[in-house]
Amino acid sequence: MAAIAARRSRTGSIAWLVAVGIVLAALNLRTAVSSVGPVLDQIRDSLGMSAVTAGVLTTLPVLCFAAFGAVTPALSRRAGEHRLLVAALVLTGVGLLIRSMVDDVAVFLLASAVALAGGAIGNVLIPTLIKRHFPARPGPLTTLYSVGLAFGTMISSAATVPIQKAADGNWHVALGVWAALAAVAVIPWLALLRTEPERGTAAGIRPGDLLRNRLAWAMAGYFGSQSLIAYVIFGWFPQFLLDHGFTGEQTGTVMAIFAAVGIPVSLVVPALATRMRDQRPLILGFVAIYVIGFAGLLTGQAIVVWTLVLSLAMGSFPLALALLGLRTRTAEATAALSAFGQSAGYLFAGAGPLVVGVLYQLSGGWTLPFALLFVVVAAQAVTGWYVGGDRVLDAVPDNDSHGPSRIDPGHLSQGRADRVVGSGRAGAAGGRPRSDRGPDPLPPTRPRLARPAGRHRSARRGPGGRLPDRCD
């Protein structure tokens, strides 16, 4: 009994340490982006940046999030999840520190890319860690994660200018201070290196496998549409406010309120989503709020009120994070879906501010930009309808293969399940090749987050009395 109690105590301590580590890591994932905007003019003047170079700097986050996010599952399988997150936080801290110490444009851009690479890896890895360590209770940890992201973004954006003023206008200090936050975030993960999850026994999914999967593309579309709207709001909404008579100080206040409202929303949405078997009502609710908010802003009246309404719709971001875990059963599947959804989504979202800028310049007004946003909201409704349904992405071990995972072409998007066949060790799985297993059985009777609806065949045990983790 004493041994059992000690084991439970150790498990509980590890869980708390993981939770603290996730929150601290989340605080750092956006600092490389959000700390630059408030002092961008000073950086451009100090480094002699051209308009083109400044455009490259503002485009780097999208490119890095897409590129490095896509390779995160492969890196995780080779290095281990805890080790990779330590490396990601080190990259973030080193990149932030180096770019705060240089006066060369090329080195500044390179250091920014290093810091953004760390953030991109963390974006994909943390949902996987939540699924790995808290498979039965992902909601509370997703809430902490999304709140940490929102708070880290808000504080780094709001505090950079005051820090610069306190440092006699030195933007180097204002950017470099955020490297200290990354150093603090590394500490719990260094302690967790000894608890690295075992690798090599679970199914893996290659990014190419998801290219033919409806759920993966729907997730990319949903993630990309909400990210595009967020990029446009943070990039162009200040100009919208200025065009409607707001002063620069008033604009900053409105944007701060807009960001602050997102924190309590982030507290509620993931917990609510995990209690729902079908998240489509929640998704369509956010779509309706987007439509109401944009329509109200387009009238040009009561702008602050409509801004507050619109800020509620930003709950679609923590909802997207929650869906990454709700639409998968295993940490490996979560990693693959997170990498694909976020990488493809960020590429799609990155074009939003550019297109809005072109439309604004051509029309001289806001009707065309808002028309584009209504189209994006419609796309979010369509993709969200599919993603929010009661379906899961399966990673089923293929005991005939020790190489990279592959798609099972005959079992894509059938009924309510989107399935991927991954690689696994025959000895660990203890079964015959898939072709010898007979008709598809039910998933095991253990509780799970999303159970496909409809009629099912009776459960049949596989070799060794094992219930295969599959469903129709």
TrEMBL record:
InterPro entries: MFS, MFS_Cyanate_Porter, MFS_dom, MFS_trans_sf. It comes from Herbidospora solisilvae. GO terms for molecular function: transmembrane transporter activity. Residues 14-392 form the Major facilitator superfamily (MFS) profile domain. Keywords: Membrane, Transmembrane, Transmembrane helix. Residues 399-409 have a biased composition (Basic and acidic residues). The keyword Transmembrane helix applies. It comes from the Bacteria. This is MFS transporter. It is found in: Cell membrane. Residues 397-472 are annotated as: Disordered. The chain crosses the membrane at residues 12-29, 49-72, 84-102, 108-130, 142-163, 175-193, 214-234, 254-274, 281-298, 304-324, 336-360, 366-387. The keyword Zinc does not apply. PANTHER family: 2-NITROIMIDAZOLE TRANSPORTER (PTHR23523:SF2), PTHR23523.
